[in-house]
Amino acid sequence: MERVRLSSLLDAGIETPFFIYSAAQLAADWQAYAEAVAGLDAIVGYAVKANSNPALLRRLAGFGAGAVVVSDYELRLALESGFAPQQMLMHGNGKRPRDLEAALRAGILLSVDSEFDLEQIISRATALGVTARLLLRVNPDIDPQVHPYISTGLLDSKFGFAEGAVERLRPRLQKLSSVEVVGLHCHLGSTLKSVQPLRDAARLLAVLVNELRRDGHPIQILDMGGGLGIDYSRGRDKIPTPDEVTEAVRPVLDELGLQLFLEPGRSLVARAGALIGRVLGVKDNGRKHFVVTDASMAQLIRPCLYGAFHSIELLEESVAGPQLAFDVVGPICESSDFLGQGRLLPTPRPGDGVIIYDAGAYGFAMSSRYNLHLGCAEYLVDGDSLRRVRTAETFDDLSRHFSDEPISVGTRQPSARPAARD
Ligand SMILES: Cc1ncc(COP(=O)(O)O)c(C=O)c1O
Asked: Facing residues of 22 across strands?
């Protein structure tokens, strides 16, 4: 990775598995967005959910990125990493009171997902005496053609207002205080392989922009979300560029004089990261060959959750044996614990290094402690320099949270709410 030989980390006895990130790849993927919005009134808000390691956040903030958050802690980490509140947005279909409180106090943009969301924003903003700047999240019922778990643009998804719902809301929106509707937001889904759905969505939102402007709302922002995929096959798939994204929505921006807000996550950090593991052993059961590594679904859940493909290689091929088709699996006690199936690889030896590519997004961010394989370390490479940017979780970190304290909830009379069991 850059000028660091990855197997040297294993030779140095560094514990596996670990995630490792390339500063140069991060900068290059940011540059692609910076060039795509050059000359446009635009904010490129990094979706912190993809990877919240502060070392990456600080670099992205330093490049001039904004930030898109879902929770109070993502917001806090983003602010502490140097993102400017004016370039930040909180979205979410279920904002908890603590998330909303933090967003309103920080004065960042809020994306409204539903009528109950709107009501809680109004009441909280009124209580705090602030005016919340809102984007209405619209669900345009457009199929982004991605895995159903990461598809958010169809009406069967839990996100956003249907078009008709915005229409019905218009009279109410005109009478609101403590909030200002300044834009529209949509996010169709993740791992997009075409910009056509974005083009269609922008067209649809343009109609709503005109209607809301006629109602007197100062609509300035068109937030087209994130979702741009990457080529996980490393060569087979043709994925649009950030440039093609902005070109797809530029006619609407120019026509209506709107500021563009984009929310990339994956396409900014996925390629920069890799998951590194050690081979524990090789086996076959007469039907399949397996490479068992210490890296697993506890670090990278995407293969089993979405059936996602990640390229896998040995760190050093020179020493390996004959090529065979292997399932690359982890040590977690689940048959869903695989990182790749039927992969043609040279037969490794125990201790050899394995690299799972493009694991910078939705890797560590979605990792678990299954079988008490605790959070692993993260490293950052910059040229020939190597930094640890997160230490691995220890048993002490885990056990610090174990407790056995008596909790008294008082003996107040049960509330008037009907008993569930009836
Ligand atoms: C509202 C919203 N914005 C942005 C993103 C980032 O998406 P991606 O990482 O695919 O760019 C997501 C993720 O799904 C999202 O739900």
From this structure: 381
Ligand 1 proximity of 225 Cβ (cutoff 6 Å): yes
Nearest CA among 72, 40, 45 for reference residue 224: 45
Clarify whether residues 83 and 134 are in a common domain.
yes
267 CA closest ligand 1 atom index: 11
pLDDT tens sequence across 114-152: 999 999 999 999 999 999 999 999 999 999 999 999 999
pLDDT tens per residue across span 44-76: 999 999 999 999 999 999 999 999 999 999 999
* Cis ω for the linkage preceding 414 (within 30 of 0): no
**Alpha helix segments (H runs only) across 19-90:** 23-36, 54-63, 72-80
> For residue 364, is it within any domain?
no
Query: Rounded distance, CA 395 to CA 217, Å?
Result: 54
333 a catalytic residue: yes
Which of the residues 186, 304, 333, 376 is marked catalytic? 333
Based on the fold, state whether residues 209 and 351 are members of the same structural domain: no
Range of the domain at 52: 23-268
DSSP state letters, 61-72: HHHT-EEEESSH
pLDDT at residue number 410: 82
Asked whether residue 255 falls in the same domain as residue 294, the answer is: no
Number of H helices, E strands in the chain: 12, 18
Is there a domain that residue 257 lies in? Answer: yes
Domain of residue 203, CATH code: 3.20.20.10
Does 79 share its domain with 212?
yes
Tell me the C-alpha to C-alpha distance, in Å, between residue 367 and each of 93, 290, 293, 370, 377: 22, 23, 16, 9, 12
Residue 159 lies in a domain: yes
Model confidence pLDDT, tens digit, residues 81-114: 999 999 999 999 999 999 999 999 999 999 999 9
pLDDT, one tens digit per residue, over 267-301 is 999 999 999 999 999 999 999 999 999 999 999 99
Torsion angle in degrees (nearest 10) through CA of 309, 310, 311, 313: -130
> How many domains are contained in the chain?
2
Q: Which atom of ligand 1 is nearest to the CA of 137?
A: 1
- pLDDT of 348: 96
